[in-house]
Amino acid sequence: MAKRRERRVPPSSDRREDGGESSKRTIRRGGDSAPSPQINIVLFLIVVIAPAVAVLVYRTKYAPVTSRILSAYVHQQGLVKADVNYQEILTELKRFQEIQENSKVSTNMSQRHYTYPVLAYITPWNNKGYDIAKNFNSKFTHLSPVWYDLRSLNFLKMAFWSQGANLVLEGRHNADVGWISELRMKGNVWVLPRVVLEAFPKEFLRKKKQRDKAIDMIITECKEMDYDGIVLESWSRWAAYGILHDPDMRNMALQFIKQLGQAMHSVSLERNNGKQGLQLIYVIGPPRSEMLEEHDFGPADLRSLSDYVDGFSLMTYDFSGPQNPGPNAPLKWIHSTLQILLGGTGKTHQNLAQKILLGINFYGNDFALSRGGGGGAITGTDYLSLLDKHKPELQWEKNSGEHLFFYSDDHHHVKHAVFYPSLMSIFLRLEEARSWGVGISIWEIGQGLDYFYDLL
């Protein structure tokens, strides 16, 4: 994980008093005679004006984070608001893209405003994400291309007969070495491909040879491809297989993650900023309530793995679905999820918080509200097409902190509800994350609108 930046604090009163004593010593060096009017003016400038100017400079340079982010272009243009219409979105997005493409673009558009870690996912099926990663390189600390699956050879046969099988790490054909090289020429972003652990869990976790082989394959791939580590997704798979209800299997699952983290951290890599170990970020789902179920990843699990994992990618999205249409990630739900996982205050809370990467969706959903429901995810391109075609009236849902609109299908006259992120909804989630001192993880940058990244 990138180190959390230390907050600057105003100069203490002791330092100001030291400055005053220095001024008094200067007066004494002037002799015992009465000071002239010119000297009085000089002393006034030194004692009164200079400190005031220093404070002003300090406040400008080290302004609070919330003040600094307001320097983003979208804030300056007054675009981050609840009251927005479709025409404004279409017009201002196009204007932003034109400015961003201009060779005289303000450096402010590449300046980071969110100072905690930012992990962004990129998927091969949304190639725009690769360009976004390059164009807004400075906005991200970690990039995770969705490239790999670690599965059991003869997986289907194994599912029927539960026989042991060799492992295979699939996905190198997805890797884009040239893209990684371009990223590193532009900045210091870390590249951690996602690996989904698909191996049959009961066989995998019980057999030491399988676990050791998996770790060796992951580390070897990182070395050969010059990755900075991986993002591992396995908890949701283990939950689907029902193994987390078994205390022994659950413990073996946690032990494997610890073993993998230890092994990855023991590998030393040469980077521009010195030596570092391979990083491990682990994907976790949000607990649905304080009454945790066996398959939930809870606060005890977080504490158990915190010394072995560099970050936890928390999937705080997909709150609603076709069978229960609604907002993608209600703000109150996000808050309660963080409260469950982190709770309390103090040093322990801070140590855990700095490893959380709060999930923010850059995709939306188009739900059919009649004829049996249905619907699914939409990208930014889909969203803009709907705005241009239906010219809807956008509504701000205060309870969830999200924008939505309705439209009717031309052919079947089915009413639809569309929930898609806006500058305002993303800003509120960044502020929520900032209040907890956590980073963010974005799924995924090929699906968002270009001016979203100005907020980061």
Can you characterise this structure?
The protein is an alpha/beta fold and 456 residues long. Helices cover 42% and strands 18% of the residues. It is built from 17 helices and 17 strands. It has helices at 13-28, 37-61, 65-69, 73-76, 86-101, 128-135, 155-161, 177-186, 201-206, 208-225, 235-241, 247-265, 299-305, 331-342, 347-353, 380-390, 423-436, and strands at 118-122, 142-152, 167-170, 190-191, 194-197, 229-233, 268-271, 274-277, 279-284, 311-314, 356-361, 364-368, 375-378, 395-397, 402-408, 415-419, 439-443. β12 (364-368) and β13 (375-378) form a beta hairpin. α1 (13-28) runs antiparallel to α2 (37-61) and α14 runs parallel beside α17. The radius of gyration is 26 Å and the shape is globular. The two termini are 17 Å apart.
Radius of gyration: 26 Å
Helix content: 40-55%
Global outline: globular
Low-confidence stretches: 1-35, 51-67, 158-164
Please indicate the percent range of residues in DSSP E strands (runs of 2 or more).
15-25%
Kindly name the structural category.
alpha/beta
With strands numbered from the N-terminus, the spatial order across the biggest sheet is 1-2-5-6-9-10-11-17
Q: Tell me the total number of β-strands.
A: 17
Figure out the total of helices: 17
Task: Please tell me the overall pLDDT.
Answer: 84
- Main sheet overview: 8 strands, parallel, barrel
Quote the distance from N terminus to C terminus: 17 Å
